[in-house]
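Margin note: ligand = NAP.
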Amino acid sequence: MTTVDTTYAGSFIGGAQHRNAGDALDVVNPADGRAFARVAAASAADVDVAVQAAAGAFDAWSELAVSKRGEILGRAAHHVEEHLDELIPLLTREQGKTLRDSKIEITKAIDTLMHYVGLSKSLRGVHTPNLDPGVEGYVLRKPLGVVGAIVPWNFPTTLLCNKLAPALVAGNTVVAKPAATTPLTTLRFAELLADGGLPPGVFNVVTGKGSVAGEALVTHPHVRKIAFTGSTPVGEQIMALAARGTKRVTLELGGSDPMIICDDADLAAAASAASMGRFYNGGQACLAIKRVYVFESVADQVIESITAKAKRLKVGRGDAEGTQMGPMHTDAQRAEVAGQVTQSVNAGGELRAGGGAPDDPDLQDGFFYMPTIVVDPPHDSPMATEEVFGPALPIWRVAGLDEAIQRANASPFGLGSSVWTKDLQSAREAANRIEAGYTWINSRTKVYDELPFGGWKSSGYGKEHGQEAFDFYTETKSVVLGGG
Ligand code: NAP
Ligand code: MG
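Resulting structure:
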């Protein structure tokens, strides 16, 4: 029997726990399907308290020197880092991922905070000395005010910090809403940042459902910008809601990243990158290898190699020794992927690995799904046209680069992409023609804080990471200084 921890007040507002008035939400361990904590969900009134706290903290925070904000955030981030041993198992328990993946995630989240702490010392503006004789111009950059950050369950901490870091360094204050199913790590993260010296009200968390707390945040008149990561349909809904009040939005949405493997590629390295890129985090990543297009002449070899890797992966509880892939996050998510696989196989795809839950009697209560490979499903089947948000990979044989690029682009999404080839011309052509915010050439799909990241087409709008992220958390003003 798991005892359910009912001590969570549900929100963290103005530097302290805040007891929400909304319905209780169960937090379930995906490895065994059992609730282990209950969190009071935020009502619209609770969200209002949080937004008021953030608005109240804004003046003092935005008036600090940029480098001072960086210094404070850096110290607070360091305090979070000192509690990694507590955060890692908590994230595994509520999200399902392996302890190793939890460590990678939270370490990356802290790295992102520190990246923007570093940038806080080098932000410079534009000055034009001679617009007209005796007239000069410069560009002021001002924070927006209160930013709402809405985050999904697959990477609760990194996706939060992608928003929090540039928003806070730029002088905004933030109210975050984690996914209803992963509130705990975010609440503890906020508490640790506050203990580490982040002033009250600068960063607040409201937990609860998207349809209640999320919408209340998006529509709150004092929220100037919504930074959203999640699915395309919800992103579109948020964009529509944000139209009232002409709020700023950035949308990091779904993806179906293509990987092209040419016949001259390092095939072993490409197969490894495919397996890693698809099965990492149980396949529940926005940037992931979601469609492979391999040249016909090397296809059998590549398919065999990726299939063998999929079959070797050790599936188990995230907190068990030796587990390489944990459960999926919810039963609903598993059912969605299972449906996409079944339909694509029924339509003619060849199932080469997986295709269902594991047989292991110890894993029957959790939301497990075996690493799955489907070869050549029809190009109009769900695995080709939809985002597959789980551990199932379709692989298609293609005649050559032109067909591969055309197929890669025949998707509503445009988040990431990758190409494996030793030929410089092929690599340049793919990077040039693929419609996506990232193209990796002979490289696994790693996201760098240094480079701007954001989707094209239905994968979203705006950029996170890089110096560019600041553009989405500030307004600029051109100032002309006359000589008269
Ligand atoms: P989702 O349903 O869109 O949920 C994301 C967040 O939005 C959750 O906190 C959710 O709350 C909230 N929400 C739901 N409805 C809302 C509404 N009407 N108003 C305001 N907020 C609302 O996303 P998901 O399906 O759980 O997450 C997976 C998706 O995220 C995939 O499509 C994946 O590709 C995408 N993703 C994209 C990126 C990227 O950077 N591009 C990164 C990671 C994930 P609830 O928890 O209550 O539903
Ligand atoms: Mg959803």
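The pocket of magnesium ion (ligand 2) is lined by residues 231 (CB under 6 Å).
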